[in-house]
Each structure stands twice: as structure tokens, then as C-alpha cells.
Amino acid sequence: MxxxxxxxxxxxxxxxxxxxxxxxxxxxxxFTVWSGFCQYRSLTxxxxxxxxxWQSGKxxxxxxxxxxxxxxxxxTVGLGNIAGVAIAVELGGPGAVFWMWMVxxxxxxxxxxxVTLSMLYRNTQDPDNPHGGTMWVAKRGLPELxxxxxxxxxxxxxxxxxxxxxxxxxxxxxxxxxxxxTNAEIYFGVPMWLTGVVLAVVVGLVIIGGIRRIGQIAxxxxxxxxxLYVICGLGVIVxxxxxxxxxxxxxxxxxxxxxxxxxxxxxxxxxxxxxxxxKRALFSSEAGLGSAxxxxxxxxxxxxxxxxxxxxxxxxxxTLVVCTITALVILSSGAWNRAPSAEFDTRPRMSIExxxxxxxxxxxxxxxxxxxxxxxxxxxxxxxxxxxxxMGRLYGDVQSVTAGRARIDWRPLYAEDAMTVSMVDGGLxxxxxxxxxxxxxxxxAQPGLGRWMVTLTIFMFAISTIITWSYYGEQxxxxxxxxxxVLVYRGLWCALIVVPxxxxxxxxxxxxxxxxxxxxxxxxxxxxxMWLLGSRGMAAWKDYFRRLDAGKITEV
Length: 556
Fold this sequence. Notes:
Layout lengths: L1 H14 L2 H18 L2 H14 L13 H12 L2 H14 L2 H26 L13 H12 L4 H39 L3 H16 L2 H30 L4 H11 L15 H16 L6 H5 L7 H8 L1 H21 L8 E2 L6 E3 L4 E4 L3 E3 L8 E10 L3 E15 L2 E6 L2 E2 L4 E5 L3 E4 L4 H11 L3 H33 L4 H13 L10 H41 L7
Helix pairs in contact: 1-19, 2-6, 2-12, 2-19, 3-14, 4-10, 4-15, 4-17, 5-12, 5-15, 5-16, 6-11, 6-12, 6-14, 6-15, 6-19, 7-8, 7-19, 8-9, 8-17, 8-18, 8-19, 9-17, 9-18, 10-15, 10-16, 10-17, 12-15, 15-16, 16-17, 17-18
């Protein structure tokens, strides 16, 4: 199995490499320029559609524009907004936020036109329960492009459903339940299996009602959970308001200049900031994956373009609002470049072990704020062939704290040939991965806020994600099974919520690897379809706004 997952890691390194990210960015820029900045239409006309100021007619569909947007947001606004942004800032620095904004804007164009295409080619044979998504775009759009592609279109659609279902089961279900159960066990001592059962029951009660109930529940949960998170985040930002001018200065400066090491932050180049910011914006909003169009395709409208316009709001809310709140909280609180939790009396030298790995020669230091069980890291300078230098981290685990002295069990740093490692200083920093860093930042303004608020939002975000991804996976299942076995699918879905909470899964490395493979193949199928059929979506988009501007489509 180890060899299998190493192979998948290699596949992921190719499928989600810089060229793929640049292809996504290119697609967003292409549709932005082609449409004449469609983001403006989403922020104006799209807002009017979800508030009911504009109506798009009584066409086929099951849910309203607002419910469709809420359902899609419930899948995208999740753990990535809490943990993913923290990782981007921690490793990419303040400059990552600027690139996150830029790519978020491009993502609005991607989402607008992938949803427009899905609406143009959705299956409305049952007008009260339409089906859409990349699989239907392939099945119906490719033959329109070239009649000889009729059979290939069906196969491409089926091929897309395989990674769609794989990601739904792993990233959209098991990863979410494992994260919630682990958090509840660590903070509150709740057995993981009990959390899994509760999640399965709650989700089961919702998905049994299909997309109508999912839309109704999402319409209630999403505004509440986003509102709660944004309000708490704004509270921290206001508490640190004096730091905000410097924070924005850092964001813009670090986007085009290397960010220097400071406190727990080891420094980052412009390229690192760009990559982490781009990944966070694109993967958080799911722009280009072809998943969100499945929820949007259930909307009730006779004008396909209207839902594409509404969908453009999704990256705006997810990336430019919620992700930005997380980033500003972390930066303004100083959590990203926090001071050491403990320091050696004198900086220890590095020892070379028999296997060629490096560890600090000393294992004890004044405990400071460290406690037994903490994971810590120290900064290391890694020199290759006496010329190239880079910064890294040496990790260790606090084994015990006795008489004010902490004992560290260091994790070896395995060096390459002609490499030397030295500690930069004597400071040790408590490791705060992902959501823990966000919680720490919230706690800086009000002790206990991070623990309760992050726990609550993780629980709500996870439930909403599991609910919506159950529908995405179900649509893939129905496409492959030709409409059969929906109750079997829903039963299996609820059972899989509990499985990672039974103690079989100690880490989510394998789950993450499988879900990442699925993401790569979804992108590889959806993006070429957007390029091939983009002119159809653009023609429909321009025709709709030509009629709107001519007064042929009027307000309520």
C-alpha cells in the first residue's frame, strides 16, 4: 500500500502542479477579458437575482437562486477557509493574501461560465428535478460541437463522474467527519464514534429529502455560519485596528518582494506567496472543478445565464470575504509571526546521527510556556554545497516538563548530499497547524473565543459540506447507474460518515491523497470542456445582457 500511495503522490505532483494552476488562472483571465469583466454583472445583477429584485421566469427547476447559491456555498465554505488560509499565510506570508484576492476575482469568471454551460446543457426531462454538471455538458455539448463525438461525449461524462464520486466520498465526506470528530475528542473528550453517529443521523435526515431539502437547509445554515464567522472575525480585526495599516502594507509589499523571516515565520519568496495564494483561492472556491454547477443546475429559471451570473458571487463570498477575514485575523493578531514559546539558554549545535540525519545536540531547555504533549519547531538554516541557502524547520515533541525544564524528543531532519544544517537561533515555537493557528489568532483577542468559535464553525461547515457533496456524488451515481439505486447510495453515504470515526483512521494522509487525485482529474476533464464550448456560453451570456440592457427583461 505504501508504494501505491507514493505512486498517487507522484500523480498529484503532476496533476496539481504549477502548469495546472496557471491553466486555471489563464481560464479565469480569458473569460474575464472576453466578457468585459463579468464580475461586475455578478455583483450587481446577480445580487438583484438572489434578493428577488429581478426574476428570471418560471422555468424548470426545484430551488431558487438564493437556495442554489447557498447549496453551492455550503460545499465551498468549509475547513479550507479556516485551516487552508492559515497554512497559506503561515508558509506563503502576507503576500499570499494579495494573490488570493487576484485569483479569487479570476475565479468569479470561471464559476460564471462553467455554471452557464451547465445550465445550457442540463437535463430537464423531469422539470421538477433537473440534472446538470460537467457530465451533462460533455454528453450534450460535445455532439453539438461535432456530431461524431456523440458516443465520446457520454463516455467523457461517465469518466468525470468517477473522480467526482471519489472526491465526494473522501474529501466531501470522510475527511469532514474525521476532522469534526477529532476536534470534539481533543477539546471536549467526546468519543469519535459518537460524533460520527450524530453527524450521520443529521445528514441522513436532510439528504432523504433530496435537493429541495438540501436547498432549504443550506439557505438557513450558510447565512448563519458565514455571518457568525465574519462577525467574530471583524471583532478581532477591530480589536487590532491599529495594526491594520501595517497589515495591508505588508500584504501589498510582500506580493512583489520577498517576505523576511520574523518570529515563527521563516520567510517566503514572491513565488512561494503566489503559489500558496493561488492554491487557496482556486481550491477553496472550487472554481474549475465542475462540482458547483451540479447544485446550480437545480435552480428554477427559464434563463440559463441568470444562474451563471449568480454563481459568480460564490468565489466572492468564499474567497474575497470569508478567506480574507481569516487572513486578516491571523495577520493583525500577530499569530503568524508569534514570539517563541521557549528558548534555549544558548543556541545548540547540530549533531549528525549515524544515518546521516541532523538533530539538535541538546534536548532540554527552560520550559517557558510549553507543556507536555506540545509539538514544537525551531528554525534551521540549510546550506547546500556551501552556496545555496534556504530556511527550514526542525520539529520535536515535548516529552515532559519537570522543574521548569522541558525535554524534547527531536524528529530527525534527513539531509541530502553535501548539505549542512544549523539552528538559526535558540527559539522554540509551538506548532499550530491549520485550524489551530486560526483558533490561536481568535484567542488573542478574547481567550476561549478560538476554542468555541472555531469548534462550532468547523462542525457547521462540515455538516453543510457533507450534505451538499452527498448531492454531487449522488448526481454522479445517477448518471452512471441511469437513475437507479439512489436509496442505496444515500445509505452508503451515511455509513461512510461513521467509518473514519471508528478508530481505523489515525491520520487523514491517505484520504487526502485520494481526494487530491480526484481533484486533479476533475480539473483535467472540466477545463478542456470549458475551452471547447466556451463560445456557446459566451454567446448566451452576451445575448442575455443585450436583451437586459435593451429593456426586454424588466425588474419585478
